[in-house]
Amino acid sequence: MTTEASTEYRVPRTLDMVRDWLASGRRQATAALALYVAISVGYFGLHVLPHLGSENVGLPNWTDPTVNMWSLAWWPYALLHGLNPLVTNALFVPDRINLAATSPTLCPLAGILGAPITVAFGPIVSYNLLMLAGPVLAAFFAFLLCRYITRNFAASLFGGYLFGFSTYILGHMQGHLQLVLIFPIPAAVHLVLRRIDERISERRFIALMALLLAALFLTASELALTFVALGGIALAVAFALAPTERQHIIRTVKPILAAGAAAAIVTSPVIYYELHGIVRFGPNIGDIDGSDALGFLVPTNLTRLGRTHFEALSQASNTSGSDAEAVTYVGLPLALIVARYTITRWRLTSTRILLAMLAVVVVLLLGSRLHIAGYPTIPLPWKLLDRWLLRDVIPLRLAVYMFLIVAVIAAMWLAQPRAGRWALGKWAVAAASIAFLVPNIGGGLWRSQLSNPALFTTHDYRNVLTRGETALILPFGQLGNSMLWQAETGMWFRLAGGYLSPVYPTDYETDPLFPALFRDAHPDPQTLRSFLARRHVGAVIVDPKMPQRWPEALAALGLKRMSLGGVWFYRV
User: Fold this and answer.
1) Nearest to 433 by CA among 336, 318, 314, 311
2) Potential cystine with 454: which of 182, 309, 382, 565 (Cβ 3.0-4.6 Å)?
3) Which residue from 128, 11, 27, 10 is spatially nearest to 69, judged by alpha carbons?
4) How confident is the model at residue 386, as a pLDDT?
5) At CA 13, angle to CA 7 and CA 16, rounded to 5?
6) pLDDT tens by residue, 167-189
7) What pLDDT sits at residue 368?
8) Which string of b and e fits 109-146 if b means at least 16 CB within 10 Å?
9) Longest C-alpha distance within the chain, in Å?
10) Exposed e or buried b for every residue in 74-86, given b needs 16+ CB within 10 A?
11) Cβ(90)–Cβ(495) under 8 Å?
């Protein structure tokens, strides 16, 4: 009896101690941050952390992660050597490439913040740590936003998780670093709410908001553009639906504009280069990359639930054709939470504002035409926006705003006071909504072994390549790993090639050799000779794992092959 009584006494006492410790806002934030770190490592880092320099968080055999790594290496190299980081002659020799206009994966903020790690440990380590930090920061700042709204620690933990580990994040964790570092979005919304409530001074608000807007623009200008547009719509909706708050909203507009102007000044060099060389990716991107109507409820390959059971329907509703962009799935339990909250709290002004913004985002997410199970039907408003305002924006990436709104609604729903079986039922639905979004860890979608030969991971390349020499690495462009190998050497040599976007420089696209660079055909030796001469190529390096037909063509030119550090090396 004594043992049982002492046990019964210890359990409530332990819970009381935990509650007392979590009574502090800072301790709550610390606990939330630690939890999100553990989840991110558990989902994406367990297999990668022991091999930070040889494996990467991302989809195997995909080019975008290596372009991110190249950008992480380029920024500290350019800044330390006094170069303009927005223009490079390290790629596509002899051209000078406007990186701000041609590379959506440039991500200056990551390059600057990750510079100490990149210089000390290399771009692969820097990339992996930043990727693992992305969901953590997104979840943490969404947690702070939800806690400010609900004043409920547990409900805010739930809301933070839904945003930071949403399907949007799962998709872009395959290799879009710039689309994973989205923490400025919930942080900026939190800041605006605090200003409307006059919980922060105008001067401090302008300074912090300018930093957040600049950070978002220097991470992904596409998201910065849509954030500003949707933020303006949100203020207009709030002004229309909340008459008692209109004076507060009006007083907030001026400091927001001031912060936007300050952010524009800070980022003006990047804005200048982006506007003086915009690359268009095709007129039908809105049609191709809008969400299918079933995509919100049909699990995809990104989630454990969609691994096998919904494969056929998932493929039919995946309009992008890529797991990385199949990012609109919210799951049935979470959809029911939103529906339940809408029904029970419709009279609240905050509910109507959130639902109005959710409707706007969902309609835009559907793209320029409504697709149902892969079949196009009626035209939608995006068709006009795609033509006039948002031509270079991919509609599917607006899912980041959908998940933020849904996370806030879910946290508010869970924070509503309930007792007994009702409370247990709410937590059961919350747990089910998380279960429906658990990632497909066993699918191999977030772990990749990099092809990184010893020639470039040691200093052996200095024995065969002079500093600043031009090299042609084959396979070419996105078919190979040339940019990663260049980044590993600290930009020791220049490339007659590379990959920044589907659009190549004009003099490369019109080169007679260009078609042979992208198909396994017999390259004409004389065409190859002319290509090497025009670009002053001093060495050709071939990946033995993917030689294609290049050894025969190079042998026909009389070039001798040497096996060095895991590659075939040809001195021109």
Assistant:
1) 336
2) 565
3) 128
4) 61
5) 150
6) 999 999 998 999 999 999 999 99
7) 85
8) bbbebbbebbeeebbbbbbbbbbbbbbbbbbbbbbbbb
9) 94
10) bbbbbeeeeeebb
11) yes
Contacts of 346 (CB under 8 A, 6+ apart): 352
Query: Do 72 and 110 contact (CB within 8 A), yes or no?
Result: yes
315/321 Cα distance (integer angstroms): 8
Using CA atoms, how far residue 225 sits from 5, 231, 257, in Å, is 62, 10, 14
Q: Which residues contact 422 (CB under 8 A, 6 or more apart)?
A: none
Where would I find the beta strands (DSSP E) of 128-275? Answer: none
Residue with tokens 């990149």: 118
* Amino acid 23: pLDDT: 64
Burial code (b: 16+ CB inside 10 Å, e: under 16) for 323-360 equals bbbbbbbbbebbeebbeebbeebeeeeebbbbbbbbeb
Cβ–Cβ < 8 Å for 77, 513: no
Q: What is the pLDDT of residue 283?
A: 39
Q: Please give the Cα distance from 567 to 475 (Å, whole number).
A: 12
Task: Tell me which residue of 141, 226, 211 sits closest to 183, measured CA to CA.
Answer: 141
**3-class DSSP state for residue 569?**
strand
Residues 6+ apart with CB under 8 A from 185: 141, 216, 223, 227, 400, 401, 404
User: Which is nearest to 102 in space by CA: 83, 114, 118, 88?
Assistant: 88
Q: Which residues contact 83 (CB under 8 A, 6 or more apart)?
A: 77
- The alpha carbon of residue 155 and the mean position of all alpha carbons in its chain are separated, in whole angstroms, by 25
List the beta bridge partners of residue 539. Answer: 471, 571
User: Which has the minimum average pLDDT: 62-66, 308-312, 347-351, 355-359?
Assistant: 308-312
Phi, psi of 329 (to 5 degrees): -70, 120
Contact between 402 and 358 under an 8 Å Cβ cutoff? The reply is yes
- Helices 399-415 + 332-344 axis angle, to 10: 60
Helix (H) or strand (E) holding 377: strand 375-379
What does pTM read for this prediction? 0.90
Query: What sign has the CA pseudo-torsion 526, 528, 529, 534?
Result: positive
| Residue (of 481, 471, 478, 339) closest to 410 by Cα position | 339
Residues 108-128: tens digit of each pLDDT: 999 999 999 999 999 999 999
67 by Cβ neighbours in 10 Å (0-12 / 13-18 / 19+) ranks as buried
Whole-angstrom distance, CA of residue 372 vs CA of residue 188? 34
Per-residue tokens: 291: 């969400």
Burial class (CB in 10 A: 0-12, 13-18, 19+), 13: exposed
User: What digits encode the pLDDT tens for the residues 283-328?
Assistant: 344 344 578 888 899 888 888 887 666 766 666 566 666 777 889 9
Mean pLDDT over each residue of the chain, to the nearest integer: 88
Task: Label residue 249 by pLDDT band (50, 70, 90).
Answer: very high
- Average pLDDT of span 499-510: 88
Q: 505 — alpha (psi -120 to 50), left (phi > 0) or beta?
A: beta
